[in-house]
Backbone:
DNA sequence: ACAAAAGTGTTGTGCGTACACCCATGC
DNA sequence: GCATGGGTGTACGCACAACACTTTTGT
């Protein structure tokens, strides 16, 4: 350890988290009012500064923990943002992460104590700096990722019904899906275990609970098989004439 | 501008570039021997430190220019790496970029003057720090990206033949493709303009040159149509029994 | 004339899509 | 008994994969 690079510039590194949740049939973001200058009081992503003693992931998890009280959250690095003047205060690099949260299990009170609110993805206000750009990118990434990775379950409780799952896919992709085709496709993966129990909140008949079988998924993944839940047909470039 | 964040830590930010090229039917990387401590003399990606006055992209382009003499290179941000001890010298964040280069047009002498070498992707040596991890990730990302974005052309000269293009796809995906199906699929996009001229280096008959029509692609993209050149059939998780 | 690479069409089938009715239950 | 959401099967068409022979030309 030493002074190898002492002639080089050093930079503040912020970690900003785009936190997705799913509630009442809508995809939501956890946003808050910034509590310090500059831009105090404006809407913002949850963020903080990287410390010397922590890795990027550790830092992001620390920040998530502060806001939500949750550990063990699904989280991925999104992108780094480094325009020279992106932060009007001082030159700051931001490394953005996105996280998927089970809103039901979340301690809403803790979030609210931090001045955080769940806001529908369709009603995101103007955020500070380049945070709106980050949200856009995160949403795009989520939409792409959910096709090839079974991460939708991270947004639902451990037990969920197929109508709930379908409603999640519809909220993320902003389009209606055919019930029969959706069920067929998701069930033929063999990754969902049907429970005996029914959820009876939203219908008289009740819908059976299912659970995602992580073990099975890991097995298949190791064998080189991929999850796929394609939902909308891409409009492809084709000269048909 | 001021001292808003003065209690926070500041960090060295490195920019490391994974530079892909395509030559002699092989996908290659531009690698070099590190010229300063720590780890002087070991194989490494091209990198440098972010300056206060430049954005991340600008920094990455500056570094690419130094090594290759090229501007106007296709480049994308890959990922940031920030394990506390990833650099044994000092705590350094690295933001990795990958770039696609037309080797033919490149000034090889300049690259060699910097001690850089084109090395087949199948023969990448042990690199310093976490650079091998970066290469792995970049390769995966390239493989994914080339399916949905017409970026393969960035690795070929402006004029190229269909056998060359097919050979590129084969090199990236490490698998043989059917000539007829490949041609059919790539031509039916309507994005390739056939030239009158033939390339006669690698066969007696000669293969017609084509050019990628960027204008047409941009038009289609704006209209919401997507490029797709799927090449290998995914092994999907399915319970067939 | 022959070797070496370029170029060209057709057929079968598996997968995705479209679509309508019965079921269970609470009120 | 009726309203509400849950659950189920099939038929059609298209897009993808498999496959073999002819053409050109340099030597």
Residues:
């Amino acid at each position: 350890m030493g002074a190898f690079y002492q002639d080089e510039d050093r930079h503040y590194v912020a970690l900003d988290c785009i936190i997705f949740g799913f509630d009442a049939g809508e995809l939501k973001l956890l946003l808050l009012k910034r509590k310090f200058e500059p831009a105090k009081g404006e809407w913002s992503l949850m963020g903080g500064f990287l410390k010397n003693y922590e890795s990027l992931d550790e830092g992001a998890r620390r920040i998530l923990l502060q806001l939500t009280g949750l550990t063990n959250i699904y989280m991925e690095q999104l992108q780094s943002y480094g325009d020279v003047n992106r932060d009007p205060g001082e030159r700051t690099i931001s490394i953005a992460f996105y996280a998927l949260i089970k809103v039901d299990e979340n301690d809403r009170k803790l979030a609210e104590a931090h001045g955080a609110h769940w806001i529908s993805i369709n009603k995101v206000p103007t955020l500070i700096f380049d945070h709106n750009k980050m949200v856009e990118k995160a949403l795009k990434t989520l939409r792409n990722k959910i096709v090839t990775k079974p991460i939708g379950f991270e947004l639902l409780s451990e037990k969920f019904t197929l109508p709930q799952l379908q409603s999640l896919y519809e909220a993320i992709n902003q389009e209606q899906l055919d019930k029969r085709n959706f069920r067929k496709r998701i069930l033929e993966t063999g990754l969902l275990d049907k429970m005996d129990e029914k959820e009876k909140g939203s219908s008289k008949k009740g819908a059976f609970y299912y659970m995602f079988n992580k073990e099975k998924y890991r097995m298949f993944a190791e064998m080189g098989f991929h999850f796929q839940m394609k939902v909308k047909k891409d409009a492809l470039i084709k000269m048909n004439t």
In short: The CA atoms of residues 43 and 127 of chain A lie 5 Å apart. The longest strand of chain A covers residues 10-23. Chain A touches chain B through 54 residues (CB under 8 Å). Chain A has a mean pLDDT of 93.
